Automatic annotation (TrEMBL):
<dbReference type="GO" id="GO:0006525">
    <property type="term" value="P:arginine metabolic process"/>
</dbReference>
<dbReference type="InterPro" id="IPR023696">
    <property type="entry name" value="Ureohydrolase_dom_sf"/>
</dbReference>
<comment type="pathway">
    <text>Nitrogen metabolism; urea cycle; L-ornithine and urea from L-arginine: step 1/1.</text>
</comment>
<dbReference type="GO" id="GO:0000050">
    <property type="term" value="P:urea cycle"/>
</dbReference>
<comment type="similarity">
    <text>Belongs to the arginase family.</text>
</comment>
<keyword id="KW-0464">Manganese</keyword>
<dbReference type="Pfam" id="PF00491">
    <property type="entry name" value="Arginase"/>
</dbReference>
<dbReference type="InterPro" id="IPR006035">
    <property type="entry name" value="Ureohydrolase"/>
</dbReference>
<dbReference type="GO" id="GO:0004053">
    <property type="term" value="F:arginase activity"/>
</dbReference>
<dbReference type="GO" id="GO:0030145">
    <property type="term" value="F:manganese ion binding"/>
</dbReference>
<keyword id="KW-0479">Metal-binding</keyword>
<dbReference type="InterPro" id="IPR014033">
    <property type="entry name" value="Arginase"/>
</dbReference>
<dbReference type="GO" id="GO:0005634">
    <property type="term" value="C:nucleus"/>
</dbReference>
<dbReference type="InterPro" id="IPR020855">
    <property type="entry name" value="Ureohydrolase_Mn_BS"/>
</dbReference>
<keyword id="KW-0056">Arginine metabolism</keyword>
<keyword id="KW-0378">Hydrolase</keyword>
<protein>
    <recommendedName>
        <fullName>Arginase</fullName>
        <ecNumber>3.5.3.1</ecNumber>
    </recommendedName>
</protein>
Length: 315
């Protein structure tokens, strides 16, 4: 049985993955998340993907210092807006270019504001793609609703074109449609975000639904919503804080009551099985927030989620 053969409808043979290493943290306040991608690569992720039968492109992590700006005062409540915008614009280009070549971009964060870039890049190449967002958080605050001003809590509002528009972010085409987005794993959603989800009819499966229906049924319902015929390209954006903190402790905004190890991996396996996965983000691994063993565990889980999404099976 070769489940590692070419079941992907969109990625040509030989299957090629392009690792987009994004050592970036300006979308939130904690130090260390910029080291996430370095740890994931040093743990052996490129070789592990080769062992799964993928050709792996990786020519080093992006160096974003060059586009950092001396003076980056808040715009309204948004923190580090210019730096976040420039980095995400560069990431959109990188992801879009890989996708154009028929490669599957695997973006390693870094904080989740990067998804403004990754999803922009995906939608550029695959305008009818849908987004499966796995997270404890909805990351859909607008400049108006955000309490923290951290852009990692806001990428989806920009991609959907919700809230106030800013010149600085005008490069983002608001091309994501609410019905092409689905969440799994939510359990810490701000009041303003709940209103946005409701008003825009955005489908979300919180931990309550995971408990109620089980992960198998939840994934099926999520795909039935965004991809009923399983013919649309899928962008999977996985924030490791979707996992329970006992599974992925070293992350900036842990919330208890999360996905088990298997539930998280099941989601990734199921996305691969559709044959529609065209892009993957592994976000918010922060190697500075726990003791060495817990860091190692979190990095290892980041690697194994990526392997599962790229076809690693249990048998
Ligand atoms: N990508 C994340 N970990 N996001 C956490 C966001 C937390 C909070 N909702 C905020 O907007 O600040
Ligand atoms: Mn999160
Ligand atoms: Mn997130």
């Amino acid at each position: 049985m070769s489940s590692q053969s070419s079941i992907s409808r969109f990625i040509p043979n030989p299957k090629t993955v392009a690792i987009v290493g994004c050592p970036f943290r300006a979308g939130q306040a904690k130090l260390g998340v910029d080291n996430g991608p370095i740890h994931l690569v040093e743990a052996g992720l490129p070789r592990q993907l080769e062992e799964l039968g993928w050709k792996v492109h990786f020519d080093g992590h992006h160096q974003f210092e060059e586009i950092a700006t001396e003076n980056d005062p808040p715009i309204g409540k948004l923190k580090n807006p210019r730096f976040v915008s420039r980095v995400c614009k560069a990431v959109a280009k990188a992801v879009g270019d890989h996708a154009k070549k028929g490669q599957l971009p695997l973006t390693l964060g870094g904080d989740h504001s990067l998804a403004m870039g990754t999803i922009s890049g995906t939608l550029d190449q695959y305008p009818d793609a849908c987004v499966v967002w796995v997270d404890a958080h909805a990351d859909i605050n607008t400049a108006d609703t955000t309490d923290s001003g951290n852009l990692h809590g806001m990428p989806l509002s920009f991609l959907l074109g919700l809230g106030e528009k800013f010149e600085e972010f005008s490069w983002i085409k608001p091309v994501l449609k609410p019905e092409r987005l689905v969440y799994i794993g939510l359990r810490d959603v701000d009041a303003g975000e709940k209103r946005i989800l409701r008003e825009n009819g955005i489908k979300a499966f919180s931990m309550h639904e995971v408990d109620k229906y089980g992960i198998g049924k939840v994934v099926e319902m999520a795909l039935d919503h965004v991809n009923p015929k399983r013919e649309r390209p899928i962008h999977l954006s996985f924030d490791v804080d979707a996992l329970d903190p006992s599974v992925a402790p070293s992350t900036g905004t842990p919330v208890r009551g999360g996905l088990t190890f298997r539930e998280g991996h099941y989601i990734c396996e199921a996305m691969y099985e559709t044959g529609c996965l065209v892009a993957l983000d592994i976000m918010e691994v922060n190697p500075s927030l726990a003791d060495p063993e817990a860091v190692k565990q979190t990095v290892a889980v980041g690697c194994s989620l990526a392997r599962s999404a790229l076809g690693e099976t249990l048998l």
